[in-house]
Sequence to fold (1158 residues):
Amino acid sequence: MRRLRFRRISWGTVFWVALVWVLLWGDFHPGNIFAGALIGIVVQEVLPLPRVPYSGRIHPFYLFKLVVRFFVDLFVASFQLAAIALNPRRLPRGAVIGVQTRSASDLYLTLTAQITTLVPGSVVVEAIRSNGMLYVHFIDVDFQGGIEAMKQGVLATEERVMRAIASDEELEQAGITR
Amino acid sequence: MLQLLIAHLAAALAAPALVRWLGRRAFLLLAAVPAASAVWALTETGSVLDGAESIIRIPWVAALDLDLVFRVDALSWLLVLMVGGIGSGVLIYSSRYFSSRSTDLGRFAAVFVGFAGAMLGLVTSENLVQLYIFWELTTVFSYLLIGHYSDRVTSRRAAMKAILVTTLGGLAMLAGIVVLGQEAGTYELSSILANPPVGTATATAIALILVGAVSKSALIPFHFWLPAAMAAPTPVSAYLHAAAMVKAGVYLVARLAPGFSTLPIWQAIIGVLALLTIVHGGVRALRQSDLKLILAFSTVSQLGMLILLVGSPFQAGALAGMALLGAHALFKACLFLVVGIVDATTGTRDLNLLSGIGRRMPVTAVIGALGVASMIGVAPFAGYVAKEAALEAIIDGQAALAPFGMPILVIFALGSALTIAYGLRFWWGAFATKRGVTASLEVVRPPLLLVAPPMAMALAGIATALLPGLGETLLTPHAGSYPLGEPGHLAIWTGFTPAFLVTLGAFAVGGTVFLARRHLSRMAFPWPEQWDGDRIYRNTLRRVDQAAAAITTVVQRGSLPFYLGVLFLVAIVGAAPGLFRSTVGANLWFGTDLIVIAASVAIVAATVLVVRARRRVKAVVLAGITGYSTALIFLIYGAPDLALTQVLVETVTLVVFMLVLRRLPVYFSDRPLAASRWVRLSIASMLGLLVAALAVIVPQSRVHDPISDRIPTAAVELGGGKNVVNVILVDTRAWDTLGEISVLLAAATGVASLIFLRHRSTERPRPGSLEDVKATLGAAEPDPIGNLRQPRSADAPTRKANWLVAGMTLAPHRRSVILEVAVRFLYHTMIVFAVFLLVSGHNAPGGGFVAGLVVGIAITARYLAGGRYELSAAAPLQPAFLLGMGLFIAGSTALASMIFGGEILESAILHWTMPVFGEIKLVTSLFFDIGVFMVVIGLLLDILRSLGAELDHQGDVLDEDGEPVRQALEPAGTIERREP
Fold:
């Protein structure tokens, strides 16, 4: 017989799962919240995953800023892309640009990459873990503002991500101020 | 009665354990069970003597008007006594016959007791359908008994022969029973016989039933299975030939004869086949040198006599037949057991090798002599009494039998003479001291328990003969129910009657034949070889095999395009004529919704591009676009459930395709534009046109209100759910779903077994050992951008985070940090979403199928991000376990409602109140849905295991040069065809 032992519960995950559960049902009944929390615990016990190495802190103001800026980018880039696509005379000149990110965490690297990919016109083709390089494809570099601007855009996204959720120490290591 | 049957069943189930515990002594314990039925029959003797019939009725399938009914009259009484008495004797004998080291004794004991139970049920069944069930049970059990030595090819062939022949007859009989039951309006024997139906249908039914009886009783042309069945252990032969199996046919004839023996077709079948069999069996018995085969052909011959007598319409014949039935059971079982003793103690049954056995085993020789005396009809043995009565009956009935009276008498007398000849030859062969044969065989003294059963049977043969009056009293009630003549009498001495003179004549002829055996054995056998049943059987079997192979090579040629072509052509030919006849107009108006138009345009464009695509990946992705666009249309038209399912299925399909495409060539093979492609092109175009036409015409053809209008209210009221699709799946048409998940299970197992060439269980490293395989998966492949992976500087912070359990087992170029992090954060959320879909699916879009797909996709994501070790960690359960468990849960739910008194698969709606949660409503079909959920997860897991992990594993096997060995997936149609 294997000895029964419980794994360490991540209460953040429990909160998240309960929130998802309640939102799915669309009903803030106490029973629902309780059931959601229960599922959160059971899921972690039965289907364990390694603990998330997150040591940061969430700053609501910067998080709000990150989200707003993301939607603005989304909006602007959609029209940009439409303009490129609908202009029959223009031959887009794409490029893959390597960007050296500054954070030491996979989490910020991933979030930066995801946001960059979600914004139309730019796709991360490779994210290299060992040295934090992101290789991003831009559909029309000249139209979008040039290589250097694109690079700075990705780095700015990283800054916004880190300001929103990273710890002071991590910001300092990456050389970013809040 | 029922208790006896249950006792047989329980004993059969307990037999393997008993044998394991007590060894061969367990047979002694098991012998008590058939003995109990014999004792029970004896206690019933009083009521049988009074002519009273005890009936037991147990309600069974009310819908079919089918009750379990058991009736014991004089005929059943006799058979129960035989089945039980001989059965227990043979079991006692078996406790010493088998070596204590012999294997499979547990199975043998179980099957033997089961066989005895089936015979018991057969001879006491009042209902014809019930009788048929027991009939087929004896067939199956006899198959197992004859094939007991399953490592011997003769044994297996003999068993196959027996089951094929008797099942053929059994199926004919089933058809006959159904026709007879419909004609008579009842399936109960006593009612049918009290009021036998007449007409062509009845005659046909009777003929069909007789085919069953005749095949079971090994009459010509089905006689050949019986001698082949000698491959069975001798106790089995004794029981099968004396008391069971072959006697089932005799029983059925005797049972039906009172009602139907005056039918011309009955008399033709019984008369011709029985007379032929008497002569054929007798002649062939004379020519055997194996003692068991002499007895086997003797049984064939005697069965002819038995069927002739009990199948005659005369009361006297029936009485003689029943007497012979009992006598034959005693002497034939006795003789078989004697052969078994000789065989076991000397090691041979060949009468050319045996010599001087009688002197060394005097007791056995005497028992054999008693048995033979009864068989050949020497006074004062049961066989004599029965044969005298039979001859009396035939001679007395000459007038009624005309013009066949004389031939019947002659053949019966000839049969008796042959019996005398081969009976003498049997005893001489087994026990006599022969000149020219060295009696050097080692002889072991047989133990008492081996000798006692045959001795008891031989003595019973004398005892019953000494009390002929008792036998007459007991058997007359049944014989008296025959339509013609007087019952006649059983007696030891009736004076110098014509019958006695015939007997004397038979002895003279038989004795002469025995003395002239040397000359006879040199004579050619007069039976034409091409009429030999065994030969016909073998030829038929070969032709069936050949025809099957020929049809298979034409129909199952292994070509997917051929199969699809046939299916499509059938669809076109079947549906197109209806379309041309249709008078309704076509509705080409699909609405003005912009999204629908856009989606339709996308579908059309993607379809055209799929056909033109040369790259496999391109074709798959384009086909995916049509699927997603269809989901969009579903959504717009208000079917979120369908849309959800469509999107998930499409996603899974894409993933599976990609997994397979890894091992297929990048481009479709380039084939010349041969004629076959034009054929395929035209079939495809026709089918496309047909489906399009159906889509626009069929909705216009509706003349009635659609039933779906009423489904939403019915779903809430009866199924307790607002999601109509889910209620239909798990409640309204749950039987369908149950069938479908069974097919799914079979398909998943098929996929797995096609891919797992070696064995199914992949290696599953313990979590602790993952360090050992760190960065090994794919390490052999070249890294195209390896130079970009250089660390920034020596003092740069290192990243050590483990986002997944086994992500580190992949080589760096196989890892994707984005995928790992995303999967880490989404995995639990997806699981929760799946749980939500499962629980809420009865009222909202969702359900077990969709939820299973979501879990499957979550696991797929982990596999894609973390490799095959991650898959093992994500799903520590075997797919087979999930599949089986899912089907088990669904099946249990189906049955559980029956336990609570509902219909199968009926769902109940439960309400209760709990603190914190408030009122809770639970529909029991949720559990059914959980079963579906698990089967779907199991299927996806099986696919991931086989098409994903197993192919990865094969790719990771390196050859001598360090290059990965890749086994290409074989395209369909090139699988090696096995020659039959």
Observations:
- Residues 151-535 of chain B form one domain.
- The two ends of chain B are 48 Å apart (CA to CA).
